[in-house]
User: Fold NAD-dependent protein deacylase from Shewanella psychromarinicola.
Amino acid sequence: MYRQIVVLTGAGISAESGMSTFRDQHGLWEQHHIEDVATPEGYARDIELVERFYNTRRQQLNSGEVAPNAAHLALVKLEAEFTGELLVITQNVDDLHERAGSKRLLHMHGELAKGRCPQSLQTFVLREPFGVDNCCTCCIPAKRLRPHIVWFGEMPFGMDRIHDALDHCDLFIAIGTSGTVYPAAGFVDSANHHGAQTAEVNLDPADRHSQFQYHFTGKAGEILPQLVEDILAGKVIGSE
Ligand code: APR
Assistant:
């Protein structure tokens, strides 16, 4: 039986909920230039373009057409019934893990549902789209809220907690991530270095495929329910 499990999720876990991934065919990075909508420089260059990008993604998330899928729910079952330590680290900025019921969750790339004061760094749950009138309440004069998203070139959140969890886990599972963006893409190396078992659940072999000891190829929503059952039954991955 495992003692401490770390799970890393990426856009692929939300794909079956209807959210676009980044690098699949027709993904977000086919429709937008990363440097225009996911960098501080892009935001400084064209604030309205960046606000439209995040307003559109937040609108889709709140449209009522997007809901957690079986993969999110399987992780909630794991959190509820696993007697050891579990930490779910997500690269996703959607709130589907929360809506499914996950509590031990760390958004390392920020959250679509929140804005941040550029001056105080205080975060605010968004009540309206980003725009010139959507300002903080912590400064005088009030400052225009920015997306609470980690852009390329910015430091992800929770890295100390993440490294501590990776140093002590005995199972690391990456779900629905292409393994192309660091530091998340390097978490498997840290887990391997500290002797954890490492498994990948992905539609296609991701960039760091060879670093994982075990591979479950297919849809997360179809694979995770059984994988969680096996873990809760005390089975060691790859044992049969
Ligand atoms: N089940 C499992 N895996 C899936 C599914 C699915 N139903 N659908 C797609 N995938 C896989 C794809 O094969 C791909 O490997 O999910 C992965 C998604 O990869 P990306 O689109 O690159 O998303 P992600 O890895 O989360 O991107 C990491 O890059 O742009 C930045 O900040 C952004 O957090 C994001 C980071």
Summary: The chain is about 35% helix and 20% strand. The CA atoms of residues 100 and 146 lie 27 Å apart. The first strand starts at residue 4 and ends at 9. The mean pLDDT is 96.
